[in-house]
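Hallway conversation turned thread

IA: we were arguing at lunch whether anyone had actually written out NitT/TauT family transport system permease protein end to end. Turns out nobody had. So, for the record, here is the sequence (272 residues) and right after it the structure tokens. Reply here if something looks off.
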Amino acid sequence: MTAGRGREKAAVEGRRATAISRGLLPAATALASLLGLCLLWNLVAGISPSRAFPPPIDVWRVLVKEAASGDLAYHLAMTLSRVAAAYVVAMLVGSVIGVLLGVHRRADSFFNPWLVLFLNLPALVVIVLAYIWFGLTEAAAISAVAINKIPNVVVTMREGARALDPRYAEMAKVYRLSLLDRIRHILMPQLQPYFAAASRSGIALIWKIVLVVELLGRSNGVGFQIYLHFQIFDVAAILAYSLAFVAIMLLIELLLVQPFERHATRWRRRPA
């Protein structure tokens, strides 16, 4: 009995160690890939030293200097606040419109040309018009970013509404569920995967547009800093701010977006 329990315990520990190693492998691979990129960057910068292509150590020095002065944290916070505000507006408005169009086919047919128009409208045009019509204000900046993203959310959520299973709606009628219960227990679980997909693509698009908005009409934020250092051809500072913001967005992707996506799709059956 003791020997059997020992073998069983060893097998469990072996499986646990294997699972841990499998979990660490992607992280180790990603780290090795980034280190390889830094080495290649340093090699290319060393072959032909130039202010236009600084080595990683120069970028790191600028990053440390800006962080120590507090400027990096301030401008990152301003940009992230705009990303968050535009994201919330785009997801709320786009989700409501998308579900309504998915449920009401006649409205979808009527408004579909509008949707196609806004999907193909360049982001730069929307930003410039927003600043001309509403002035160089925070509301104009956030609205311009949200308007650029709303059509994409509408398309994704419309497909989710079209894919709703009518049997669940019939069951809700049989059990006389309230509107709130129908939304909570019938509608939201089916739409969660589509909301997660729109959310993931939304953040990836929004933060890039926010930088353009800041570059054109804001006096703070990462985009403004990129424009400011572009004026004096300080590539090291441009890369420092850009890489710092990209790192923050990657953390948001790994710690918030991906876990939410896994949670949203957990009920789906895996293919055999």
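OS: looked through it. Residues 2-47 form the longest helix (46 residues).
IA: good, adding that to the notes. The radius of gyration is 24 Å.
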